[in-house]
């Protein structure tokens, strides 16, 4: 089952007998059962339990159930109970199944929205008289 056509999107399967050394970039969705030693950039990733990724993952959505050693930057992330992740995780929406193992820091990718009472960020220009809330300025 190499490609599934719903609309005009397809998905590619990396079988359990496949090892890729190098970065993987796909406009299709990826289903990974094998091993990838390199960074992954695609629309959507589904990782099988026996799969191993050594490198960063960047995608819109990811459903991880194997081993990942590297940073993850995903809009919607689901970490299943069989997953073992070592690396920092950046997400907009996150679901973690009980039993998943993650060693690293979690950070929501959305802290750039200023509060309604807060003026537009001025890179530290008005930091003097404010002793109320601490301010955080993010490099964009």
The level of helicity is under 10%
Q: Please tally the helical runs, counting DSSP H or I stretches of 4 or more residues.
A: 0
Q: Compute the gyration radius: what is it?
A: 19 Å
Instruction: Give the beta-strand count.
Output: 15
Indicate the mean pLDDT: 83
> How would you sum up the global shape?
globular
User: What percent strand?
Assistant: 35-45%
Structural class, judged by helices and strands? Answer: mainly beta
- Low-pLDDT runs: 1-7, 123-130
The helix/strand series, from N terminus to C terminus, equals EEEEEEEEEEEEEEE
Layout of strands and helices, then pairs:
Blueprint: E1 11-14, E2 19-21, E3 24-25, E4 29-32, E5 35-37, E6 40-41, E7 44-47, E8 52-54, E9 57-64, E10 67-69, E11 72-79, E12 84-86, E13 89-96, E14 101-103, E15 106-108
Parallel strand pairs: 1-4, 2-5, 3-6, 4-7, 5-8, 6-9, 7-9, 8-10, 9-11, 10-12, 11-13, 12-14, 13-15
Structure description:
- By secondary structure, this protein is mainly beta.
- 0% of the residues lie in helices and 44% in strands.
- The protein has strands spanning 11-14, 19-21, 24-25, 29-32, 35-37, 40-41, 44-47, 52-54, 57-64, 67-69, 72-79, 84-86, 89-96, 101-103, 106-108.
- The strands form two sheets. Strands 1, 3, 4, 6, 7, 9, 11, 13 and 15 form a nine-stranded parallel beta sheet that branches. The chain has a six-stranded parallel beta sheet with strand order 2-5-8-10-12-14, with no helix packed on it.
- The chain is globular.
């Amino acid at each position: 089952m190499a490609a599934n056509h719903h609309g005009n999107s397809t998905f590619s399967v990396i079988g359990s007998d496949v090892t890729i050394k190098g970065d993987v970039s796909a406009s299709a969705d990826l289903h990974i059962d094998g091993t990838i030693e390199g960074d992954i950039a695609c629309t959507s990733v589904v990782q099988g339990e026996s799969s191993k990724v050594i490198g960063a993952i960047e995608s819109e959505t990811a459903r991880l159930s194997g081993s990942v050693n590297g940073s993850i930057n995903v809009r919607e992330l689901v970490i299943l109970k069989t997953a073992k992740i070592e690396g920092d995780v950046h997400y907009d929406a996150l679901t973690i199944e009980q039993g998943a193992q993650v060693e690293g820091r979690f950070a929501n990718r959305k802290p750039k929205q200023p509060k309604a009472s807060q003026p537009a960020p001025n890179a530290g220009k008005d930091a003097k008289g404010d002793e109320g809330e601490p301010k955080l300025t993010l490099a964009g």
